[in-house]
User: Fold this.
Amino acid sequence: MVLLGTYVLLLIGISRKAYKFLIPHIFFCFSTIFVLIIDTYIEILRTAGTRDAVESYQIIFIANNLFVIIMDLYLLIISWRTFTYICDFNMALSLEIPPQSSRYNEVIKLKTLLP
Assistant:
């Protein structure tokens, strides 16, 4: 449920170009990667000295965890690049020079017409 919520916030943040909606997804990716790395490490240490270290279910479990870690890293990289793109986009909007008033443009035209 939390994963779906962070994906929804990610999509809302991308569509509205609001970086604050991306932060929960990035945090969730970090925490998931951390937990999976710890879980995989503990599982490797637990099965290292036993006879079932070469059993297929142990190898599949570790390979599955490594696959999920790689996919989460990929999602984290995409989320981070999206976050920097949105921050750069918002910065460019805030640095944009506002258009001059129409009265100012009329004065400039009159000055150029005068000899």
